[in-house]
Amino acid sequence: MWSLLLLLACTEPALSLPVIEMGACGMFNEFPLGEISHYAAFVALDAGFLDPMVKNKEFSANMRMVNTGCDPAVVSKVALPMLLGQGDVIGRIKSDTVDVPPVRVMLGCACSGSSTVMSQLAAPLEVTVVSGSATSPSLSNKAQHPFFARVIPSDSKQGAGLAALVKNLAESAPDGWSRIVLLYTEELYSEGIANAFAMDPSVSNMTILKEPLPWLPVRSSQEAADYDYARILTVAKRIAAHRPLPRIFVFPVNPQDIAAPLVRAFHEVGLFNEHSVVFTSESVVDGIRREFDRVVNERANWHLASIGKPAEALWANGSDAYDWAGLHGVIDGWLALVPNWQGARSASIDFHNFWTGLTREKLLAAGMPASSQIETTWFKDLETFTASMWYSFWFDAVTAVLVGVGDLFAAGAAPEEVRGSKLRDAIFQARFEGLTGNIVFDGNGDRLGSYKIVNLRGRDDVDVGIYDAGLGQVSFVRRPIFPSGGEQVPADRPRPCPAGTEIYGQLCEACPRGHFAPLSDSVCVPCAKGSYAAELGASVCSPSSLGSAVPDAGQASATLCAPGFSSPDLGAEHCDPCRAGFFAAAWGTSECAWCEQGTFANSTAAVACSPCPVGETTIGLASSDSAQCVCEAGSYRPLTGNVCIPCSDGLDCATGSDMTSIPTDGQGNGVYPKARPGYYTDMDLSVFKCWGEQSRCKGGAPGQTCAEGRTGIACANCIAGWRASSNGGCKVCSGADVAPFAVAIVAGTSLSVLFYMWVDTQDFLTRSMAMTCASLALGQFVTVMQQLSITAKLRLAWPEPLASVFELVAVFSLDIKVLRLQCVFDSTPTGTFVVKLLVFAAVLCLVVPTHCIVVACRHSMAFTERLPSLICAVGTIILIYYIPIIMAAIGPVQCLGNPNGLSTVREYQSVICWESGEHACMVAIGVVSMIVPLSYLAMSARAVWQLPSRMSQGDFTFVQKYAFLFMRYTPRRYWFVLVHMARSLAFSFITLAPVVVLQIVLTQILMIAQLIVSVRTWPWRAYWANMIEVFTTVVMLMLLCFSAFFVEGEPVESVAWAAAGLIILMVGSFVPSVMYVVFVHFSHRSRKPFKFFLCHHKTGAGSLARLLKCMLQEHKLVQKGVWLDTDDLKDLTKLFDYAATQTDIFVVLCSNEIFSRPWCIGEMVAAMHNGVTTARVVLPGFTGPSPNFVANYAVYVPDVTKLAEHGITVAHVQKALLWVMDQTSVVVPDVLTLLSAKVIVEELVNVEEFVKVEEGTPAVDRISLNRRFSASMMGQVYNQAKSFSHLSVPAGANAALSIAVRTAAMLADCSTMETYASALVLVHMLRPLLAHMPQKMPVLLPADSEMPNTVRLVLILCSAGFFHNIACLRALMEAAQLNAKYVPIITDDGFRFPLDTFFTEQSGTIAKVTSTPNVLADVARQTFQAIAIVFQPALYSSTKGVLLAKASEVVERMGEASVPLPTLSWPQVATPAADAPKNGERRETKQEADSEGIGQEDLEDVN
User: How far apart are CA 1152 and CA 809, in angstroms?
Assistant: First the structure.
């Protein structure tokens, strides 16, 4: 360190300005710019740089310097000459060679120790001392240093700043900081900071370990050799011995020379490491930087040149192998509190210009000695000046004196007044902006400055915050980086060694296996017996687990117990052997297991239990002897032998059951096989199940299982003289118990007689429908009751209340238990069975005598005539008893299985099936009894077979005889009685199925089949009877579904097979269905069933369509059917399929109405999309759809939306309309004739060949091709005309039969196409019916043709235009002239009989026929004196069958089989000669052929 002494002396009076004599002393060799920084202030004053601060510059200065080397002894030597002055003046130190005035102000010294001595010497002389680098807090004591001031903050401020910094970071550290090591050297600077730190309240709650270090300025090799480095190591090691190892250090040491060795020493012992946090001062920072550079790089700089290499001796005390280069890394992350020496002015451009403008000459002119070292490179930039903070503080110290002097002169002080307390106060009160910032002194002369918080990072320093000494506050501008490399504030100590570890050196080490440390910082100790530590670092010892033991202390594992031994407690020291009856099979068993049932262990330490013999077990657990083995549950030990036998079903065999324990008197506590309730067994343990009323078998000891009064197998019988009671047992019969049998005889006799009387008086023709419904309902009720009784016999455990319900309906199946026969006679099962069958015979025996008596008394012995009544009565009785007879007959073969393998009869369970003579006898009786129902079924089948023929013969006696079979059903469903009888027979036999699931399934199938047939046929005569049958069948099906819940004891396999069978049946049904569909599809593709499909509108072409079908079907080239909706449409959903896939040629009869019918349009769309050959038959007046009609089809025909559900859209329809108009056309002439009809048929038959030709013809030539086709067809028709003579002549008759011999004619309005077509259809229908009378085949007279004289009968086809047609009126008059009989036939719905006004209104037309209108009117009125026959082929209901029936009615009328025909007679009035017949003759008229040129020969062909 160094110091400067500024000597301010009074100038001589001869000078114009006061002169300041300056002298300087310090360590100028170490700090070459220290001297320059003093004189630079004077240059700055002259250059105006200090003008803002110095108010009066009217003075000059003179300065001399002394090098003190920071040695107080040197200061003592040089201080007095400067303070007192030298020379001959009084008060000065006497000197003959030097004349120096005393100083007024001293600048210095550099070090706190030197400054203290200087201050103590200057205070009595009132000389102000101003220092730029002395920081000792003791200098702040104004009592001792009243004239001391400094521009650098006091160490007391720095110590407080370090304390504030420590507190700030401690608050951010994990768990805070509680212990700090304070290192300081034994000198004022370091001690002052250390004391200020330790006394600061900020760290009062922390433990501070103060460790002083030896201090010695190292200025020579000898001093370095004398330095006590060993003491430093001792201190370091002592600190390192603390536990836990300290981490927080405050390190304000001095001088700088020993900073690096101190760091090395503490680093070597592990104190300065990555976990440490070190707080230091600026002296350490500078010392470390300088020493590192000197030691590591050995730079031959000015410092080493001036003092040599004293450090060589110093480092000789340490290790030569030390990595000095790595020492920079040790201080990474340290925090230093450095006085803020870089103010705004030091960084200003003014100061930069000032400094770079300095020259040697300017400094020498300011008084700097010429011997001073001055390098011009130092003024190149500010780098050399800013390399040390002390230059700025020394510059500001000189500036502070200049400001104080200037303030005094500015205040008007005289030069002699600028001294002592005045000058001190002026300096203390100075306020200015120096190079180190704003300079302000407090009352003690201490500067209130600030400190930078510097983060050391290798060779770089980073400012991370500020400590404001005036406010005592720390603020960070960035987060510091700590030695750990992170920003997280480290903890002040390593966490305490956790439990399970102990301190070993500087680290926590885990306890070895078998040892534990229970607490933090505790010692590892061995685990006690019964416990162990398997892992390193155990904090507790684990007790030995169950099944193990630890016999010794300090074990790392427990020993598992060997087989046969166990350890039931935790922390066991040894294992115990298992007791008898217990065992331990595995290593590590915690508790010996007892021997399970069926095993035993008869020794200790057993590793396994011995099993009992096969089939045997033990009563309890932990058996210790083989004698404790007994039979297992479900088996028993017989009387002989030692092998256990399995119990059969129905027995409860508890563990240890033994037949020797069975009591003979029902008493005893032994364990033996017992019958379960509902089962019967005797002493031989042969078990029978008590089916039905199980309460009769109470169970218990063998031979004692029946309820009171019960006896026999399955407890089925009562003791003689006893009868069954409601509790399952029997009780003694009383006199009242005979009453049911007597009542049954009386009631049966009475009912039988009354029933026959009712049958005898029944007349089915006079019986009302209400009585019919009542009788049908009664019969259905009896049938349902009998079906329920059959359902009750299914092998099911019916619960209540179903069981009681089935008992009530049992009476309808001849269940005679209610008669209590046991109380009437001693009955056996066979006897009871016979009596049951004889009930039916007894009823028949009552009916026959009753019949004889009634016939004798009421019908005068007419036994033959009344025989049907007897047959009807007997048949009805058998029908009523049909199901009971069958059920009774098959009763002996309704066997139920038992656990012992035997079967017993269901109703007579004391009878063993197939193994007893009694059963054989019952079976034989049952077989004989089956003759009755089977014979009855055969008789019924024969009657059904004969009914149609007997009805046709009018055999009413046959109907009356078998009315009990047929009168319940509609006439068309007379055969349904066989369905019901077959159902009853099958229903009865289903009860014989061996598996109950099969019984349920078969019954359901039977009921479903009946339901389907009933719904499809609706057989009953009364509507409500059909509804009742459907309802009862559905209820029966539901009951069968519910019955599945009551199946018990049924093998799962049988149910699974039944379900699998149903699934296979269901899935398998798809195979034939698919095969059928595929077959139909391909068969239709290869051979379609219809040759033609006639698409027509009923109103416009219904009759023509029927005519074309008739003619096409008889054409020799047509081998397939002709589709007409009236005959062939049974399902509307198949309509379009017929047109699309089942037809060869699609024919459209084009009338004006056809395009307005959606279904016709749909047929066209289907044909178009499937490419069906299509032909149009164009009717007269047809115009075709207009473009507007096609475009707006949905508007004109709104119903077209109905086709949408079939996938047909309006766009399809519009396309089909245009497509149809482009197809081959056949034109119908305006007047339809037979010839033109033949032409149409021929063209349709040959249309496929024409279409093939047309496909290769351009569209423009198709019209002419159509015309040529029609012409060619016309020629063919004329050539083949003879082949159509059969249209009017019956088959088999002479085709050449002349019209002249015909006796019948047909009158029709031939001018109307539909009427003419209807006439031709009628001719076609009459032809086969009149094959045996060809002369009666009516002649269809064309227009204006003569009526043959042979005509005696006319068929008048009444249509809307008949009485408007002249030819028809003339023919009608000619028929009247011939007095012909007539049959009126209405062929048109629009026909109305003409009123009287008609003949007046149509007088012009009538005048063309006759001149006597009244005659014509009278003839016309005669026409409707007979009932007309309706024959309308155009109606949708007019199927082929209906038309044939109408034609048959016409033939019947023509034959006058029942009613004579009316005759057309000529009125007996005066008539003109031209109209009246003469002598019975009619007028002969030769008529010409029709407009198409048909001659007389063709006329004969038509008819």
Answer: 70
For residue 737, what are its two tokens?
A: 């118990």
Nearby residues of 1096 by Cβ (< 8 Å), 6 or more positions away: 1102, 1104, 1105, 1148, 1149, 1151, 1154, 1160
In this prediction, residue 960 carries a pLDDT of: 74
Q: Is 1161 helix (H, G, I), strand (E, B) or coil?
A: helix
Helix (H) or strand (E) holding 368: none
**Token pair of 770 as six digits:** 């209400």
CB atoms within 10 A of CB 472: 14
Report strand pairing: 148-150 vs 128-131: parallel
Q: Tell which residue, 726, 908, 926, has the closest CA to residue 832.
A: 908
Contact 67, 2 (CB under 8 A): yes
Q: Is the pLDDT of residue 321 over 90?
A: no
Q: How confident is the model at residue 1081 (pLDDT cuts 50, 70, 90)?
A: low
Assigned token pair, 1471:
């008539």
**Both tokens assigned to 816:** 């005679």
Query: What pLDDT is attached to residue 1285?
Result: 36
Supply φ then ψ for residue 1102, to 5 degrees: -65, -45
Number of other CB atoms surrounding residue 1306 within 10 Å = 24
Span 912-929, pLDDT tens digits:
898 888 889 989 988 988
Alpha carbon distance 622, 579 (integer Å)? 10
Which positions ≥6 away from 844 have C-beta within 8 Å?
A: 874, 877
Residue type, 850: T
Q: Which amino acid is at 478?
A: R
Say if CB 447 and CB 439 are below 8 A apart: yes
392-412: average pLDDT:
91
């009664």: which residue's tokens? Answer: 778
How many Å is the Cα radius of gyration of the chain? 72
For 207, the token pair is: 């433990």
Taken as a whole, the chain contains a residue count of 1503
Token match 């009444």: residue? Answer: 1358
Nearest-angstrom CA–CA distance, 891 and 827:
17
For residue 244, cis peptide bond before it (omega within 30 degrees of 0) = yes
- For the chain, counts of helices (H) and of strands (E): 48, 55
Task: Measure the CA angle with vertex 429, ends 424 and 432; round to 5°.
Answer: 120
Q: Phi-psi bin for 699: left (phi > 0), alpha (psi -120 to 50), beta?
A: left
* CB crowding 392-402: b at 16 or more within 10 Å, else e: bbbbbbbbbbb
User: Quick one: pLDDT at residue 330?
Assistant: 80
Find the farthest-apart pair of alpha carbons in the chain and give their distance in angstroms, rounded. Answer: 215
What letters, b where the CB count within 10 A reaches 16 and e where it falls short, cover 598-621?
Answer: bbbbbebbbeebeebeebbbbeee
- Which of 718, 246, 293 lies closest to 493, judged by CA? 246
Residues 841, 847, 848: CA angle, nearest 5 degrees: 95
pTM of the model: 0.44
